[in-house]
Amino acid sequence: MTDTHPTPGPTARPGGPSTRPRGTAGHTEEFRRRVRSGEIGTVPVVVLLVLIWTTFQLLDSSFLAPRNLSTLSVDIVGMGMIATGLVFVLLVGEIDLSVGSVSGLAAAVFAVLNVNHGMTEWLALVLAVLTGAATGLVHGFFVARIGVPAFVVTLAGLLGWNGLMLFLLGSAGTVNLDDEGLVATLTNHYLPDLVAYGLVVLGVVAYLLSSWRHQRRRVAAGLPGRPLGAVAVRTFLLAVPALAAALALADFEGLPLALLLFLVVVVGLDHVLRRTPYGRKVYALGGGVESARRAGVDVAWVRMSVFMVSGTMAAIGGLFLASRITSVSQASGSGDLLMNVIAAVVIGGTSLFGGRGSTWSALLGVLVIQSITFGMVLLGIQIAVKFMITGGILLAAVVIDSLSRQQLKAHGRA
After folding, report:
1. Residue pair 215/230 in contact by the 8 Å Cβ criterion
2. In this predicted model, what pLDDT tens digit does every residue of 189-214 receive, in sequence order?
3. CA distance linking residue 190 with residue 256, whole number of Å
4. Which domains does the chain have, with CATH numbers?
5. What predicted TM-score, i.e. pTM, was given to this entire model?
């Protein structure tokens, strides 16, 4: 006897993609589901940044003046480059405490080779960046191949690379860079206004097209996609602050080359993480070592590679920090740099537990840290207050991260 009852196909799965409403209703439902499950993204840090800027602007009307915004946009680059590399390490659930020392070491290598030994700036710069990559390879080897905890390895690196930097600088302790040289140009060169406007238009159009293509792919796969209205609103929310920033920078000296390079790095590495097989392996490893190994991920190689990325970006960040003051000294890479970098990445939304975050976390987090510092200096408030405020924000970010992770676990998504 033939069974006359139809067998439910995949489309009948409760809660599956085909059962969700499409269009605005489906997008709204998807957004609510993600928020309830703990996937709040960058919303808290964006709100925090708006509150910080609003508060300081009310206290001092010159806070958002073109000159100050231009200065702030350059000040975030050195620390931001270092933070961007640290994101990769945190995504796999590890930590790198050596980034400050590595940044100082790379700057010292460049200064000694270029100034003391007469090597051309381009070659000295390449060797300085390769120095950062080499330190990351050493850290990654001990962590991934030997099994030493990353905390211990990178803490040893913090001490060891700082000692090597002091050795290279010698008794003089300070090396002054050429004010008109390549490295100095990184933070003192500005591009014409038309370049800033053109980049805003290009970026907004690229975002619009990318969102539209992503929406079409989701709809084709039977998943709820963003309605065109939501895409338009997101594009508008991106275009307005971008254009406002371009106008403000144009009122001073134009688009800083340092800011442009930083944005290129953020966008480029974000593409690597989100759109390449390597990036998917990084996120997979952060989601669980054993599950990543069973999926065919070379766990040891990925771990080594993220430390190399961190070391490389620390070196690049160190060169930008040296460019800002056109010198390298025994204080390079020390002080509160490491704590600020870690705080920036976490405040920006990268999880300390691994598996969640992006390079945009570094950009947003550094903006928060440097905006607080800049506002405090502008108002003449003691630096001690800045430390207390930053510490409180960092604690709040970690608490939100922990609560979000608990929600993800409760919904079976962590």
Report:
1. no
2. 999 888 888 888 998 888 888 888 87
3. 4
4. 43-192+254-410 (1.10.3470)
5. 0.87
